């Protein structure tokens, strides 16, 4: 095992495969979801202490977040801006990754370095001005992992798991089903 203490050469998100748990849904929402991947809100790369560059962060949205939300929506598209949306009725989601930072975790005896990602996800139906659901989360790596890829994959998986837990708790799926009619 590698304690996250030595330097790294970076992590390419394309090479990772986070797989968060999802709820079982009998009937998906038929209204399309459009996730906006704005490079000003989700930078292509983040410089992170000791890990190096975490590259291709857009993949977290275009592959991982899209896959997670595909459990609830029959159709999920990733677009660069809301101007690309051609549908009349839709749900739009905004995503923002604030960044990554080093933190500390303790088991009561020893302290460990951990890495954290702060991020946001919010969505609203097309006829709403304000968000129906908004999430802000911090996810972190395990204190001891075998590689930097494993550390970042764990961060991304926990990020999605935290979002989906809040999604279920807030009953957003039911609210959207009622909106959909």
Count of folded domains: 1
Oligomer state of the chains in this structure = single chain
Quick check: average pLDDT?
A: 91
How many angstroms does the end-to-end distance come to?
52 Å
How would the global form be characterised?
globular
Largest β-sheet summary: 5 strands, mixed
Radius of gyration: 17 Å
Count of strand segments: 10
Q: What's the architecture in CATH terms?
A: 3-Layer(aba) Sandwich
Question: Pairing-aware structural class of the strands and helices?
Answer: alpha/beta
Detailed description of the structure:
There is one protein chain. The chain is of the alpha/beta class. It has helices spanning 58-69, 148-169, 172-180; strands at 2-3, 11-12, 33-36, 45-48, 52-55, 76-79, 91-106, 111-125, 133-140, 144-145. It has a single domain (28-180), classed as Rossmann fold (3-Layer(aba) Sandwich), CATH 3.40.50.10610. The strands form three sheets. A five-stranded mixed beta sheet has the order 6-3-7-8-9. It has a three-stranded mixed beta sheet with strand order 2-5-4. Strands 1-10 form a two-stranded antiparallel ribbon.
């Amino acid at each position: 095992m590698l304690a996250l203490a030595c330097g790294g050469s970076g992590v390419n998100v394309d090479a990772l495969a986070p797989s968060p748990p999802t709820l079982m849904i009998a009937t998906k929402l038929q209204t399309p979801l459009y996730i906006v991947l704005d490079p000003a809100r989700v930078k292509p790369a983040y410089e992170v202490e000791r890990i190096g560059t975490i590259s291709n962060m857009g993949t977290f949205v275009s592959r991982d977040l899209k896959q997670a939300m595909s459990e609830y929506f029959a159709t999920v598209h990733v677009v660069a801006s809301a101007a690309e949306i051609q549908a009349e009725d839709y749900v739009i989601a905004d995503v923002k990754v604030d960044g990554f930072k080093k933190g500390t975790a303790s088991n009561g005896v020893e302290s460990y370095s951990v890495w954290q990602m702060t991020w946001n996800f919010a969505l609203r139906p097309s006829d709403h001005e304000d968000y129906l659901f908004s999430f802000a989360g911090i996810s972190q790596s395990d204190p001891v992992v075998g590689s930097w890829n494993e550390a970042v994959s764990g961060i991304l998986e926990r990020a999605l798991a935290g979002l989906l837990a809040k999604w279920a708790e807030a009953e957003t799926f039911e609210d959207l089903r009622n909106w959909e009619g």
